[in-house]
């Protein structure tokens, strides 16, 4: 069972929901919480656990071999990401732009662009009680999030059975990293806030998950500020708005201190319980 927590923009409360949902469910069953916002993971700020595994992650990039190159220029032609620049007397490779697709290497007739490994980040696995926490984190300067997200998801797939609950804290937005996290999820929970920015980006996120044909629902964070456009939009579109987390100073203080909200704020505990009830009532992940 894979549940992706996503949002159209950052700062809406994805991590708040993901961490509180994970710890709450881990009180009664085994749960995996994965922070896949690899450019800026912060779920780990709420997890104090025993280190189980840590590894450096790598991506594959081409390296130019000038002794074999005949300067045909095919490498630049087949690269869709502008990561290879073929000049009259040399070839430049830009590792930060490379997606590791092997096209330039495989289609070079002289084999002058062999692939090699390059460190791109770190994968860390902590254990605490019934909760396994896994975090992927890019090195500073690395721009390609998708390869590390794929490796982190592969680590989870190898290490845990299909029927265990996996809560995936996705990157914000609607681009490739979000799609990589959500494309195989059984449920996508879109977290938003009742502000003009929140409403605008929620609609983008809804368009994305509908295009992916994913089951999804909405949780409204900071309820009490802004207006009711998100609520009316969900009603008009037939979208389940399954929980509201209130806006309060107490919540902000607990969150900023690294505390779990559901343990101290009744309204947050009720919201998390509503999410769990929705998951169980709709038998998420049990259809197949």
UniProtKB/TrEMBL annotation:
Question: What does the UniProt keyword field contain?
Answer: ATP-binding, Iron, Iron-sulfur, Metal-binding, Nucleotide-binding
**All residue ranges annotated as the 4Fe-4S ferredoxin-type domain in the record:** 89-118
Gene3D superfamilies in the record, alphabetically?
3.30.70.20, P-loop containing nucleotide triphosphate hydrolases
- Which SUPFAM superfamilies does UniProt cross-reference here? P-loop containing nucleoside triphosphate hydrolases (SSF52540)
Q: Which InterPro entries match?
A: 4Fe4S_Fe-S-bd (IPR017896), 4Fe4S_Fe_S_CS (IPR017900), CobQ/CobB/MinD/ParA_Nub-bd_dom (IPR002586), P-loop_NTPase (IPR027417)
Question: What GO molecular functions are on record for this protein?
Answer: ATP binding; iron-sulfur cluster binding; metal ion binding
The record, for PANTHER family, names: 4FE-4S CLUSTER CONTAINING PARA FAMILY ATPASE PROTEIN (PTHR43063)
Identify this protein by name. ATP-binding protein
Tell me the organism's taxonomic lineage.
Answer: Bacteria, Candidatus Eiseniibacteriota
């Amino acid at each position: 069972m894979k549940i992706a927590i996503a949002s159209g923009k950052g700062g809406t409360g994805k991590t708040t929901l993901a961490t509180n949902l994970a710890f709450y469910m881990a009180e009664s069953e085994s749960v995996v919480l994965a922070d896949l916002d690899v450019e800026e993971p912060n779920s780990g700020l709420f997890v104090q656990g025993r280190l189980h595994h840590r590894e450096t992650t790598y991506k594959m990039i081409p390296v130019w071999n000038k002794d074999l190159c005949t300067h045909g220029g095919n490498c630049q032609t087949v690269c869709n990401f502008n990561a290879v620049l073929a000049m009259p007397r040399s070839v430049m490779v830009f590792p930060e732009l490379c997606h590791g697709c092997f096209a330039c290497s495989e289609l070079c007739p002289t084999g002058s662009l062999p692939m090699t490994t390059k460190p791109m980040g770190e994968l860390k696995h902590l254990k605490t009680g019934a909760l396994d926490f896994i975090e992927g984190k890019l090195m500073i300067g690395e721009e390609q999030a998708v390869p590390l997200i794929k490796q982190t998801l592969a680590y989870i797939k190898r290490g845990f059975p299909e029927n265990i609950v996996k809560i995936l804290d996705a990157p914000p937005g609607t681009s490739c990293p979000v799609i990589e996290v959500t494309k195989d999820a059984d449920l996508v929970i879109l977290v938003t806030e009742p502000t003009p920015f929140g409403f605008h980006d929620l609609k983008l996120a809804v368009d994305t998950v509908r295009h992916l044909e994913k089951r999804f629902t909405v949780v409204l964070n900071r309820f009490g500020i802004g207006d009711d456009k998100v609520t009316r939009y969900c009603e008009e579109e037939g979208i389940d708005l399954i929980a509201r987390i209130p806006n309060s100073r107490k919540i902000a203080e607990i969150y900023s201190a690294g505390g779990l909200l559901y343990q101290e704020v009744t309204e947050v505990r009720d919201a998390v319980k509503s999410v769990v009830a929705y998951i169980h009532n709709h038998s998420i992940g049990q259809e197949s």
